[in-house]
């Protein structure tokens, strides 16, 4: 089959890399892709949803996979489904689980899914009154999409009130923040759990752990993610069972009952508090950089996972994972996450070390191809070095050995990815 992947980041590159090794897949297209995806397939300069559907129809593309959240929330799946085209991802209605934090929190409350105590409001006075009843830290979230950055963890009531005021005035996140959620801070450890869903059935992928802060030991500002590893030993069979019964099943049942069956990736942001999973948030696509670690752990063909989910046939899929670990280290540009950096040529050493050649790879993200044919770092998060191993330690060592082979001006990365597990 031929496949179209919507998006341009490391997540989409990783999905493309998995599909490029799949004997069921003949050709891969990316819209728009990045400067390195042209090595895996063909990049398309098409962004209009109807024009993309035209291209898919004309070229007989059998499966479209949507990577980022924005086109899902904007309704790309609805456009394709109206034309009977097979597409992996939720409808616009179902994508509200990520598109609106207020919708998501109210949905959790309606269906008895455990989550933090909260209010949703567009009234500053109401926010202040609720904040006055709380002890710090206090979490303040913008309702809409903010590229993973619309969450403030305030260390005092005053700081929470300031954050609420700046969001509601439109100063912080524009229209995305004109309604907000204020909620209690949960003290535990955080996990990323991904369920591939076809509306009724689902497959849970190995749980991952992301590293959001810029600097070692989880210091510095929040980012889109500086690295991740999977599977995490912080999840046991008991937690998986609780997630199944208390979270995934009631969510899929609730989405069906409300007339928006969920197809695609249900990304569950979990805080484990005293052994119980409490839901922080839902997203409706793979996390980035978690996707970069999960794809190489997939043993069965990637096309089967995506196609059977998109066609409501997961019950007949045999999805298997390698009994291995993956660690991914994000290499970012000099000024990330504060501002854009100057383009910098990327030089990758020839790798003679067999262990690295066979057990590590790069997933490219914020890169573009220059007129000279060279690859340049042009984005905030430039690439992810992924190592695979029989233990987390071995996977981590291989990832960092690969990091040492990649050079560009101003490169920065954390040196402690997976430290919680080690």
UniProtKB/TrEMBL annotation:
Enzyme type, top EC level: ligase
Residue ranges of the TM segments: none
InterPro entries in alphabetical order: ATP-grasp (IPR011761), ATP_grasp_subdomain_1 (IPR013815), PreATP-grasp_dom_sf (IPR016185), PRibGlycinamid_synth_ATP-grasp (IPR020561), PRibGlycinamide_synth (IPR000115), PRibGlycinamide_synth_C-dom (IPR020560), PRibGlycinamide_synth_C_sf (IPR037123), PRibGlycinamide_synth_CS (IPR020559)
Reactions accelerated catalytically: 5-phospho-beta-D-ribosylamine + glycine + ATP = N(1)-(5-phospho-beta-D-ribosyl)glycinamide + ADP + phosphate + H(+)
UniProt pathway annotation: Purine metabolism; IMP biosynthesis via de novo pathway; N(1)-(5-phospho-D-ribosyl)glycinamide from 5-phospho-alpha-D-ribose 1-diphosphate: step 2/2
SUPFAM superfamilies: Glutathione synthetase ATP-binding domain-like, PreATP-grasp domain, Rudiment single hybrid motif
EC number in record: 6.3.4.13
Pfam families cross-referenced by the UniProt entry: GARS_A (PF01071), GARS_C (PF02843), GARS_N (PF02844)
Coiled coil: none
Domain called ATP-grasp: residue spans: 105-311
CC cofactor: Mn(2+); Mg(2+)
Keywords: ATP-binding, Ligase, Nucleotide-binding, Purine biosynthesis
A molecular function GO annotation: phosphoribosylamine-glycine ligase activity
Family affiliation: Belongs to the GARS family.
Name of the protein this chain belongs to: Phosphoribosylamine--glycine ligase
Taxonomic path: Bacteria, Pseudomonadati, Campylobacterota, Epsilonproteobacteria, Campylobacterales
Gene designation: purD
């Amino acid at each position: 089959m031929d496949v179209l992947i919507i998006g341009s980041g490391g997540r989409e590159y990783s999905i493309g890399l998995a599909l490029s090794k799949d004997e069921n897949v003949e050709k891969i297209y990316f819209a728009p892709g990045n400067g390195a995806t042209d090595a895996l397939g063909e990049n398309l300069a098409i962004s209009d949803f109807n024009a993309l559907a035209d291209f898919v129809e004309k070229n007989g593309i059998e499966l479209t996979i949507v990577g980022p959240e924005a086109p899902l929330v904007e309704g790309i799946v609805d456009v394709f489904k109206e034309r009977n085209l097979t597409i992996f991802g939720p409808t616009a209605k179902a994508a509200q689980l990520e598109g609106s934090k207020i919708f998501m929190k109210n949905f959790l409350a309606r269906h008895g899914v455990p989550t933090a105590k909260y209010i949703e409001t567009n009234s500053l006075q109401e926010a202040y009154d609720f904040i006055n009843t709380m002890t710090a830290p206090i979490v303040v979230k913008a309702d809409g999409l903010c590229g993973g950055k619309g969450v403030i963890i305030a260390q005092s009531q005053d700081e929470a009130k300031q954050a609420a005021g700046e969001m509601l005035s439109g100063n912080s996140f524009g229209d995305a923040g004109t309604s907000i959620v204020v909620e209690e801070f949960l003290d535990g450890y955080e996990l990323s759990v991904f369920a591939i869903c076809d509306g009724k059935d689902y497959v849970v992928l190995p749980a991952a752990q992301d590293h959001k802060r810029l600097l070692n030991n989880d210091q510095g500002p929040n980012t889109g993610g500086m690295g991740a590893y999977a599977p995490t030993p912080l999840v046991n069979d008991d937690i998986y069972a609780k997630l199944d019964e208390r979270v995934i099943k009631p969510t899929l049942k609730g989405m069906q009952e409300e007339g928006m069956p969920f197809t695609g990736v249900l990304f569950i942001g979990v805080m484990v508090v005293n052994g119980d999973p409490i839901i922080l948030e839902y997203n409706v696509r793979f996390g980035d950089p978690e996707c970069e670690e999960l794809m190489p752990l997939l043993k069965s063909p990637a096309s089967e996972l995506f196609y059977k989910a998109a066609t409501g046939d997961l019950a007949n899929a045999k999805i298997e994972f390698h009994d291995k670990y993956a660690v991914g280290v994000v290499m970012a540009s000099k000024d990330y996450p504060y501002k854009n950096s100057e383009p910098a040529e990327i030089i990758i050493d020839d790798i003679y070390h067999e262990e690295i050649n066979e057990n590590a790879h790069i997933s490219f993200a914020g890169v573009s191809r220059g007129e000279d044919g060279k690859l340049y770092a042009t984005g905030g998060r430039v690439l992810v070095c992924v190592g695979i191993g029989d233990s987390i330690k071995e996977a981590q060592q291989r990832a960092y050995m690969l990091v040492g082979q990649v050079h560009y001006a101003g490169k920065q990365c954390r040196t402690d990815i997976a430290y919680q597990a080690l």
